[in-house]
Amino acid sequence: MLIVLIFILGFLIGNIVEWFSYNIPKEENAPMTSNIKNCLKYVKRVLNKHMIVSILIGTVYCILYLKYKLSIGFFRYSSGCTILFVVALIDYKTKDVYFSTTCVSAVLSIVFIIIGYMNGISIKSYVIGGISAGIFSGILAALSVIGWGDVEIFIVCGLLVGIYKVSIAAFISIVLCGGYGIIYILIRKKDKKGLRVAFGPYIIFALMFVIIF
Question: Where does the Prepilin type IV endopeptidase peptidase domain lie (predicted)?
Fold first, then answer.
């Protein structure tokens, strides 16, 4: 019965995630009437789609519950991944990563690191994970391999899962994104100069894979 409630909770949070990913890229200084119209448009859009994001997040919550039960790990990963879902959706739609979203996720990860420390859990892996992920991704960004927004995502992932898991997630995400880029270039040779891939969704997909499996 509890797992059903967790799925429903995840489903509802999925709607919130979709709402944020739809509205955050909008101009903050839009008139109130415009905001109301945007909300009405969003409601129609949600009712006309298959709730993929909501179902996905509900399923992820259930899997995390089955693995971690109602532990600190469950709340750490479910809350962290929820915000990262927002980051991934915005990046996929706009090819941009907003500091406001990654900052919230980073603060949340730090809060759980502090909670773990207060409960006698070693935080060394998480601190090293955040620093190492930042240095590694920063080098890639300096070489124009990835964007600086992706550096923020990597830092958050390092703080969330630690050095070991973030290393695996980085490797998987690079392989997946690189594979997609190669296939895209081979299929559409004429458009390869304008190729721009949202790397964030690949990072977060790889992170979810590492957390679950």
Answer: 81-182
CA distance 156 to 108: 9
Give the model confidence (pLDDT) of 72-125 as tens digits.
889 999 999 899 988 988 888 888 888 888 999 999 999 999 999 998 889 999
Q: What DSSP assignment string belongs to 152-192?
A: HHHHHHHHHH-HHHHHHHHHHHHHHHHHHHHHHHHH-GGGG
- DSSP letters of 101-137? HHHHHHHHHHHHHHHHHHTT---HHHHHHHHHHHHHH
- CA–CA distance, 177 with 3 (Å, rounded to integer): 33
SS3 content of the chain, % helix, strand, coil (to 5): 80, 0, 20
